[in-house]
Amino acid sequence: MRVLFAVESRQADNGAMRHFRLDKAAYISNILALPPAYLSLWLLMRSPNPPSQSQGESLLHSPWFVASVSAFLALFTLGAILSIIALARKPEPPKLLLKPSQATASKLTIYSAVYGTGPDTDIDVTDKLQGMVRDGLVVPVANDLAPRDPDFGKVKDLTVVYSYGNPHRATVKRREGSRLVLPEDTWLRDELEKCKGTSALREIAEEDSEKLAQRLHEVGTRVEFHFSAGADPCIDIFIDLVNASLFKLVTFGETEGHARYGANPLATTSHVVDTFFTLEHGETGTMVIRQFLSQNVADLMWAERSRKVLLDLSFVSVSFKGLCVGMPVKKFGWLGPAVTLDGAKRVP
């Protein structure tokens, strides 16, 4: 590409030099035409006014007058011709010449992409992703990837087979509600480390850093009611999460706030069962929040489970940290979901 541009630029420079020389020659010709024109006018002004026939004929046969008029006409005509030629040959600005393959070349190649819940419902979205391909790709995984919802009411997956800069093919799967980033996170972290704030990848990471709580998506919940004689009753809320950020998200189980049953706050605090829970970029995982109950409250909640009273954990904040190469550690609080107990499984 650089060679083609250099050749085109050199050709344009040569054309500009020829145009300059022609324009300069036309200008000199017009300047040289001025003295003969002045001489002709001077000779005419010296003749009697009005001149007699013999005097007019004498003037027309005067060698000085004939020479001056001829020189003026010749030089003026030459200048006009050179100006026209210079105008016709005025060069265009150099253009960057690219072969089609060079203009559209991309390191990223998409071989196949399907979106759905399995072979029976998957919809081929290869063409759509291929139409987006550049050297990198960032795509929200959502139903608008496909012409219709492949399996209404269920969480779908996007499965992509791709290569980047070499023939080796890799397969990546992302859950609905997350984000597909190609090439994958290992390459992104390397690029972030190299670029140190100058690349578009870092811009994405900086945007993520301000919205990490929104990038941690809840995609499903289920409830287990631990309620048996001789044991402290409790409820376990299993929360399926997807990390749609470029960051690695980590929690050590710290929580703040109290859950509410209906409009009433519960006396005991909620806590994360796993004291160390982590999600890599694009990874899914299940976090369990446990809520201990008094015997009376447990009896009431189990008796009222068919009424679908909300157990609201949106007042409970789970402390997370976001880790990404080349970026400062980001702390944020993630608020829990609100669930009902009508579908809760009782565990003895």
What does this entry look like structurally?
This protein is of the alpha+beta class. It has three domains: 2-88; 106-183, no CATH class; 212-347, Immunoglobulin-like (Sandwich), CATH 2.60.40. It is 36% helix and 28% strand. The protein has ten helices and 20 strands. It has helices spanning 2-32, 34-46, 53-60, 63-88, 100-104, 126-132, 185-195, 200-209, 212-215, 295-303; strands spanning 108-116, 123-124, 137-140, 157-164, 170-175, 179-182, 216-226, 234-243, 248-251, 255-256, 260-261, 264-265, 270-272, 277-279, 284-292, 311-312, 317-323, 330-335, 338-339, 345-347. Strand 17 and strand 18 (330-335) form a beta hairpin. Helix 1 (2-32) packs antiparallel against helix 4 and helix 2 (34-46) runs antiparallel to helix 4. The chain is rod-shaped.
